């Protein structure tokens, strides 16, 4: 194999690594298993590519497979082009998995899997491993023949031990990889129990448990309760966390953006929104009686606490589904408040995070009507074929001022540092989505402060969700634990 001799047989990436990336590689030391737990914008993707490049140069690894959420994979293509050494970039073959592709892709995949004359990089969205047999076969064939590194980006995507994709990654793919890496932008997951599957993927000996239930019994405090006539164990607290931290620390590298440079402080503001009379009526009925009349003999009902909170949140956003699953709009003033906020502050670029597909459509229509048609870009599950072009337009076109997105689609792996104002039109109950989405406008070297505005209705679950997320509290854990009844009071 022809290696780059210009750097005295040392892998030389195109751009010099920052100090923290070099420190991460030094701690990793080409171990078989390691975790890059580095916050967004620090460079965990580049660090992983440099890690692979050094191993490939030394003849210890020929292939790199990357598994991650669909929305996080596209930046890998950009980073591969930008950061691999010139020599490796000339020799490497790269392929991104495409579900439902035609015969042309199948021929391309066949040729890619049979290629043995140089290094290869295979990118695959983790969702495909849940049910697409062809994806499972392709990844297994890719990892099997040669020494390979398998990296799981946004490692919380395999945090659920019982999920089909997690089982397949742990049982079928991990044993095929000579080197295993997990990448995560979170310093800590939503729950300490989320560490089990990602670190089991690396090496079960790190945490010392092969069974999730044994792991849970060791680090969680459990209590039995009755739900629907069944006895169910729920988590009410955690223990032995210092012991768990000590186990994973030698196999992990932690780094925040503030460790790389003096990042400007984040500015948090709240913008109160008033309920319309119809919203107030439906909200109060649903909160008090767990059911509300929508008109024409149609009702919305939620008997389970978590479902009731979700329905209340939807009412606050101006829509809800009835008992038959039919969609109903509820008169709201939140969208008007958002438009007035932008008219008052007049930002050059802003990100609007929403929770529901209905919010995407409503917010986008209102902004286009008030400003202009070209002012809005969208990034959500409804535009997978056009959202990359929408993202480019937001980043480069001065006429495109607003990115309206869902955190699930755009909250990971994206760099939208052109924006200095972030508005949460509505929040999900997912702490990971909140933390990841907050980091999209951040970037190394950015000196302008970013302002985060939460739209909320005081005295409602809206306000409680925001307080929980800002306090780094996982809403689901709170509801399932001691405080779940207090959310409706």
Commentary on this structure:
The chain folds into two domains: 19-257, Rossmann fold, CATH 3.40.50.10810; 267-272 and 332-457, Rossmann fold. The chain is 41% helix and 20% strand. The chain has 20 helices and 19 strands. The strands form five sheets. Strands 3-4-2-5-6-1-9 form a seven-stranded parallel sheet, with helices on both faces. A six-stranded parallel sheet has the order 10-19-18-15-17-16, with helices on both faces. The chain is globular, with a radius of gyration of 24 Å. The N and C termini lie far apart (68 Å).
Write the layout of secondary structure elements.
Elements: H1 19-28, E1 33-38, H2 44-57, E2 63-68, H3 70-83, H4 86-91, E3 93-96, H5 103-114, E4 120-125, H6 128-131, H7 133-143, E5 148-152, H8 164-173, E6 179-184, H9 196-207, H10 212-219, E7 220-227, E8 230-238, H11 241-248, E9 252-255, E10 267-272, H12 277-289, E11 291-295, E12 298-301, H13 305-317, E13 319-321, E14 327-329, H14 334-345, E15 350-354, H15 357-370, E16 376-379, H16 387-396, E17 402-406, H17 407-410, E18 421-424, H18 431-438, E19 451-456, H19 461-470, H20 475-480
Helix pairs in contact: 1-2, 2-3, 12-13, 14-15
Question: Short summary of the structure?
Answer:
By secondary structure, this protein is an alpha/beta fold. The chain has helices spanning about 20-30, 45-55, 70-85, 85-90, 105-115, 130, 135-145, 165-175, 195-205, 210-220, 240-250, 275-290, 305-315, 335-345, 355-370, 385-395, 405-410, 430-440, 460-470, 475-480; strands at about 35-40, 65-70, 95, 120-125, 150, 180-185, 220-225, 230-240, 250-255, 265-270, 290-295, 300, 320, 325-330, 350-355, 375-380, 400-405, 420-425, 450-455.
